[in-house]
């Protein structure tokens, strides 16, 4: 190969890297700048996926007409979503306002802990936690929930139109593609995305509901304040990979440590609910999801950090579904397929993510 050809190929590679970098930068800036519009739309798409999964299951079990199953799915999902947002937007806001009373009880709690862990650990706790503005943290964590409550009707409007165009959308894809082969390939991508998202959203919703129900029973038996809020947060935080279940145990256990004079309720929550989270996260969750997502563990953490940086707390909840979409799209584009292989768990694509072939 001549030096001129080598130089030409090098310039082409550099130009490709440059163009990809520019496009990636513009996409990230667009996601950040358009978050106010994109977040409710993305939430509506995921809610629509959950409704379709529920309506399809209703049809399979009851042979109900499609329109009636869709209506039942919309009613159940939107009602559940409204209840969740209402609790987070009302009771959780009340908690954020009264968290100052817990700060006043912090010194008493530290004194009780002294006899259990020793003066050195107590000094560390006092030095590192006493300066934390708990009310600010509470407002940051719960502000996104209140914002979602305000956007509930917008999300519902999006869902209504998405459901209305569900059947016509596939026909429009075929007409827009022009070439039948291109239309089939594009429809295959959408089917794979829809299948993986239905599997993920449906399974995670069921598992999170089971976890939240068990945790709520424990909170009510112990008499923990704002038990409904902690149960809803347990349900929601289970959608955040890896760290979500840990946070779901830490917050109520710390409140129990401050609220009760004895350390017993704290131990019950930290050990009991922690064990439940561990068992469900390491056995029940993988058993239901299997290898259908086929995502690298490192990619899950990386996606969590990226989407949280771009869209805040809501981005953390949406990190896995959004990354699943990206992985599937990349796997169907020849030029981006090597990137999809790197993003996958074991490097196997195609059959692992197509409907009817996921384990």
From TrEMBL:
<dbReference type="GO" id="GO:0055085">
    <property type="term" value="P:transmembrane transport"/>
</dbReference>
<feature type="transmembrane region" description="Helical">
    <location>
        <begin position="230"/>
        <end position="251"/>
    </location>
</feature>
<feature type="transmembrane region" description="Helical">
    <location>
        <begin position="263"/>
        <end position="284"/>
    </location>
</feature>
<comment type="similarity">
    <text>Belongs to the autoinducer-2 exporter (AI-2E) (TC 2.A.86) family.</text>
</comment>
<keyword id="KW-1133">Transmembrane helix</keyword>
<keyword id="KW-0472">Membrane</keyword>
<feature type="transmembrane region" description="Helical">
    <location>
        <begin position="66"/>
        <end position="88"/>
    </location>
</feature>
<protein>
    <submittedName>
        <fullName>Transport of quorum-sensing signal protein</fullName>
    </submittedName>
</protein>
<dbReference type="Pfam" id="PF01594">
    <property type="entry name" value="AI-2E_transport"/>
</dbReference>
<dbReference type="GO" id="GO:0016020">
    <property type="term" value="C:membrane"/>
</dbReference>
<dbReference type="InterPro" id="IPR002549">
    <property type="entry name" value="AI-2E-like"/>
</dbReference>
<feature type="transmembrane region" description="Helical">
    <location>
        <begin position="304"/>
        <end position="330"/>
    </location>
</feature>
<feature type="transmembrane region" description="Helical">
    <location>
        <begin position="206"/>
        <end position="224"/>
    </location>
</feature>
<feature type="transmembrane region" description="Helical">
    <location>
        <begin position="136"/>
        <end position="164"/>
    </location>
</feature>
<feature type="transmembrane region" description="Helical">
    <location>
        <begin position="22"/>
        <end position="54"/>
    </location>
</feature>
<keyword id="KW-0812">Transmembrane</keyword>
């Amino acid at each position: 190969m001549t030096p001129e050809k080598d130089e030409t190929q090098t310039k082409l590679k550099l130009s490709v890297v440059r163009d990809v970098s520019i496009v990636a930068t513009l996409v990230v800036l667009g996601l950040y700048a358009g978050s106010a519009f994109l977040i409710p739309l993305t939430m509506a798409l995921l809610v629509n996926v959950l409704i379709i999964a529920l309506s399809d299951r209703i049809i399979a079990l009851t042979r109900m007409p499609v329109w009636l199953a869709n209506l039942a799915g919309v009613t159940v999902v939107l009602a559940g979503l409204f209840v969740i947002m209402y609790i987070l937007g009302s009771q959780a806001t009340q908690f954020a306002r009264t968290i100052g009373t817990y700060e006043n009880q912090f010194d008493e709690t530290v004194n009780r802990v002294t006899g259990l862990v020793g003066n050195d650990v107590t000094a560390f706790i006092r030095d590192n936690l006493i300066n934390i503005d708990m009310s600010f943290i509470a407002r940051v964590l719960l502000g996104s929930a209140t914002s979602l409550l305000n956007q509930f009707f917008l999300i519902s409007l999006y869902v209504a139109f998405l459901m209305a165009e569900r059947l016509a959308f596939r026909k429009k894809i075929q007409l827009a593609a022009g070439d039948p082969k291109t239309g089939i390939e594009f429809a295959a991508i959408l089917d794979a995305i829809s299948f993986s998202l239905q599997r993920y959203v449906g399974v995670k919703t069921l598992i999170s509901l089971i976890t939240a129900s068990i945790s709520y029973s424990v909170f009510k038996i112990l008499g923990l304040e704002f038990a409904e809020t902690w149960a809803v947060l347990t349900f929601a935080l289970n959608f955040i990979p890896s760290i979500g279940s840990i946070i779901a145990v830490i917050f109520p256990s710390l409140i129990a440590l401050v609220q009760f004079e004895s350390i017993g309720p704290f131990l019950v929550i930290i050990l009991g609910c922690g064990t439940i989270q561990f068992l469900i996260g390491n056995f029940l969750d993988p058993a239901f999801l299997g290898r259908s997502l086929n995502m690298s563990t490192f990619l899950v953490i990386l996606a969590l950090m990226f989407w949280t940086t771009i869209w805040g707390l809501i981005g953390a909840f949406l990190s896995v579904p959004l990354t699943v979409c990206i992985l599937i799209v990349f796997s169907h584009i020849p030029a981006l397929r090597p990137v999809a292989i790197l993003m996958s768990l074991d490097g196997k694509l195609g059959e692992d993510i197509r409907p009817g072939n996921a384990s």
